[in-house]
Amino acid sequence: MHLGNPTNTLAIINKYGFAFQKKFGQNFLIDSNVVEKIVRKADVTKEDFVLEIGPGIGTMTQILCENAREVAAVEIDKNLIPILRDTLSEYNNVTVINEDILKVDINALAREKNQGKPIKVVANLPYYITTPIIMGLFESHVPIDSITIMVQKEVADRMQVGPGTKDYGALSLAVQYYAQPEIILNVPASCFMPRPNVDSAVIKLTRHEKNPVEVQDEKLMFQIIRASFNQRRKTLANGLNNSSEIHLSKDVIEKAIIRLCGNPSIRGEALTLQQFADLSNIISDIMKNEK
Ligand code: SAM
Fold it and tell me: Which residue, 19, 128, 173, 220, has most beta carbons within 10 Å?
């Protein structure tokens, strides 16, 4: 029995007397068209191992099991585990892991289940952990093919935009450094039970085979990016000067910015990813020469 409709979802909720927990961001999908489109757009095939984060009652997990070779579904809420045992009982290619995804060693999981080859991640997540999960997956160098993820509409927009727009920020740059973002579906609040207060979108992040810019020191580039957007209204030079993460003299900062673009009062929000990479490489060079 597929769950992707209000009647079947309610039947399961009532059968187990399940109480939705706000702290886990529990809004379950009740629209089978949306579920099927996500799985289709994620390009899940019988070759794939898929990691699903936050399966809920298993609505999308069922469709993933029907399309993938193997699925691992990580769910934090122990009250959902007996429900998942029931709703996924027809499938023998799924492992449910009762754990907080932020504590799971995903590298080890990819090694065990997919011989360390790139995995596909599919998730309809609580919005408050979207950014740490995405950044954690990329920064810990988990082998990733793609992440297809439901997020708040505004967050999806933020991931896609470039300089000159109000949504452009550290998340846009981080996502675009690691992956090609593409919004594949807008999902209205009416597709969930209970209904959330915001509209959602599904975004697919396809991992770049090769990073689009060359950076000598990735950590420094991301420190520079964070410092520039922490103080959006300030110039890039002031942002970098005031950062607690970066310890560079005013003189080095100004020299580097002038070498980058000739304009000492440019703001960070005007810089492209390539320019942030160039700036961090210039600063790395200046620091090497000063040693
Ligand atoms: N995928 C289901 C669906 O589409 O109907 C449920 C989506 S619901 C928005 C988010 C799910 O993530 C919930 O089942 C919640 O319990 C689970 N969750 C929340 N925080 C989590 C965490 N840190 N690790 C794993 N699962 C989590």
Answer: 173
DSSP SS3 for 61: helix
Cα three-residue angle 1-63-48, rounded to 5 degrees: 145
Q: Is the CB of 65 under 6 A from ligand 1?
A: no
| Closest ligand 1 atom to Cα of 30 | 5
How many Cα atoms are found within 13 Å in the side-chain-facing hemisphere of 252? 19
Residue keyed to tokens 């990580």? 74
Rg of the chain in Å (alpha carbons): 22
Polymer length of the chain: 291
- The DSSP string of 2-56 is ---SHHHHHHHHHHHT----GGGT--EE--HHHHHHHHHHTT--TT-EEEEE--T
Cβ of 54 less than 6 Å from ligand 1: yes
**C-beta of 75 in contact with ligand 1 (< 6 A):** yes
Q: How far apart are CA 143 and CA 229, in angstroms?
A: 29
Tokens of 241: 């000067």
Q: Where are the alpha helices (DSSP H) in the chain?
A: 6-16, 32-41, 59-67, 81-87, 106-114, 130-139, 153-160, 170-178, 218-230, 236-241, 250-261, 273-290
Stretch among 70-84, 97-111, 244-258 having the lowest mean pLDDT: 244-258
Residue 28: phi and psi, rounded to 5, are -90, 145
Separation of alpha carbons 77 and 86, rounded Å: 15
Q: CA 235, 250, 224 angle in degrees (round to 5)?
A: 55
Ligand 1 pocket test, candidate residues 21, 28, 33, 202, most atoms within 8 A of CB: 28
pLDDT exceeds 90 at position 248: no
